[in-house]
Amino acid sequence: MRSLSVTELPWVDPWTALQAWKAAPWVAFLDSGGTPGAIPGDERARWSFLCVEPTETLVSFQDRVVRNGRSVAGDAWSHLQDMHARLQSAENTGLPFSGGLVGLASYAAGMALEGVVSCHQAETPDILAASYDTVFAFDRLKRRCFRAGKSALSLPSDEDVLTPPGSIRVNFQPDMDREQWISAVREVVRLIGEGDIFQANLTLRWQAGAPSNFDDLAVYGLLRQGSPAPFGAFLRGCAGLDADRPFSLLSASVERFLSLSPEGVVETRPIKGTAPLGQDATETRRLAEQLRQDEKENAENLMITDLMRNDIGRVCDIGSVSVPQLCEVEPFAHVQHLVSCVRGRLKSGLDAFDLLRATLPPGSVTGAPKKRAMEIIDQIERSARGAYCGSVFRIGRDGAMDSSVVIRSVERCDDRLRIGVGGGITWLSDPAREYDEMRLKGAALLRVFGE
């Protein structure tokens, strides 16, 4: 094991630092916290990572895999493991992430792992990932900045910050209107009543053409200002097998999918159950208590927590899986959610890739039983989910991983923009209320585009 160069640099705001790679074809920005102070004292809002100038890239689309710009044989997961194996291992740097793999596993990648064939045509890469030797790590709590890796790349000064435009007008169209959504909810409830499933996560997409001058980074700036989140991410790569088809993901995710410590401790934090914030602290507390007591919302969270217990149990030591937090209310930028926590210990000989393969797509955006719920929602929904409901992940040199569920996101794939929003449907669901909750989740995203 060799020593990795880590240099402390003068503090630069991570958003400012990102501007230096505004035109880079590949970049990964893991933007924990968004706006400082959004979630005071929360460790999930402490660190941000800017990963630049990758040493290797990987794009998987349907039955083809492209590594470093060339078509290769084999499956994407095997190539990911090989890319990780080629990384230089390093002694503990004191940073949560000092280089490794950063990527996206789309919802379609999860469908393939579960053996579900979609009736929709996807345009998003199944898997998009890159190896990064150079990472800038930003400790937002202590306002310290570090460069890890071989490169001597520098950062811009705070004076070079780019101010995002005030608004960007794009006309998004939903693939289901209100009545169609309500009808779809009723169909899911009917199937629950017949005993086919217990719960399903129903979603829709807003879609629009990307303007010729679309600036994905400027839009991400607006998104992170309006929707600060502990698992924000900006990823840029290519949409498919041709480098001239741009792809970018702009995520303001509030939900951790899976984390894996170097010692093999697995944690997942499923989110189900939503309520608005109040106009003041008293009203917010009242709404939080209503959410805490809501039978439907608790049932939704309990089922997904049990599903995630089952998923991680596939690859964790018997008896190691526990639920230290169940249905606790946590506040976020625009809403509050019921959040649970499931932990376990990964079996000896397994790694982060085994964990991802056993659990994708995330249980909180599928349903229970998982495979049957996925089959049903694929039949009911009107379009492919794409990156939405997949996972953004980082896997360090030491094998540790953190990942998020891709929600509250904007996807740019070639000349199309997509926004996905949804919600969990149970036997107790009221279709009109489900529509209002879904629109509440999507409002902050649509406001970015002047809607």
Automatic annotation (TrEMBL):
SUPFAM superfamilies named in the record: ADC synthase
A Pfam family it matches: Chorismate_bind
Domain Anthranilate synthase component I N-terminal stretches: 11-146
Domain of life: Bacteria
Annotated ranges, domain Chorismate-utilising enzyme C-terminal: 178-441
Name of protein: Anthranilate synthase component I family protein
Organism of provenance: Acetobacter sicerae
Lineage of source species: Bacteria, Pseudomonadati, Pseudomonadota, Alphaproteobacteria, Acetobacterales
